[in-house]
Amino acid sequence: MSEFKKFDQKNWVKTNLNYRKDSGSWAWILHRITGIALIGYLFLHIYSLSPLSQGRAAFDTFVAKYTTPFFMVLEWLLFAFVLFHSLNGIRVVLVDWADGARYHKVLYKYSVVIGTILFFAMGYIMFAHEINKFFAG
Question: Is the residue at 94 inside a domain?
């Protein structure tokens, strides 16, 4: 009679936390995290549109809180998630369809550099008024 091997959760966690992850592993992990976060945002976005059924005044009152600096920063972070998810998705397509497996690390580095530049460019666009106001006086 054969015995079933017990699942040793303590060693599994230790082994997986100590596992050295390369850029491909991190890209895979972050792609899943950003995908789940974007799905969560989709539901929040639909919820945010629900006051439209109560009229324009109710909608304007509800949406007014989204114009605060706190929500602007959250929107900028949302852009970071969308940006990473889309650039990594393009990288995955190139790796899968364009024989890019040999170049996946280079493609990952390019996507990080392009993403960082676009992230800060969008930050400047979003906060240009506040930045100019801060330095003007």
Answer: yes
pLDDT tens-digit readout, 48-57? 888 889 999 9
**CATH number, position 127:** 1.20.1300.10
Residue 9 domain-assigned (yes or no): no
CA distance 78 to 9: 34
Number of structural domains (the chain) is: 1
Q: d(Cα 67, Cα 85) in Å, to the nearest integer?
A: 25
Give the C-alpha separation, 122 to 10, whole Å.
43
pLDDT tens digits for range 72-82? 999 999 999 99
Contact 101, 24 (CB under 8 A): no
Give the span between the Cα atoms of 62 and 51, in whole angstroms. 7
Q: Residue 5: inside a domain, yes or no?
A: no
Question: Tokens 């998630």 identify what position?
Answer: 81
Residue range(s) defining the domain that contains residue 51: 23-136
Q: State the angle between helix axes of 104-136 and 69-97 in degrees (0 to 180), rounded to the nearest 10.
A: 160
Shortest CA distance to 92 belongs to which of 102, 101, 83?
101
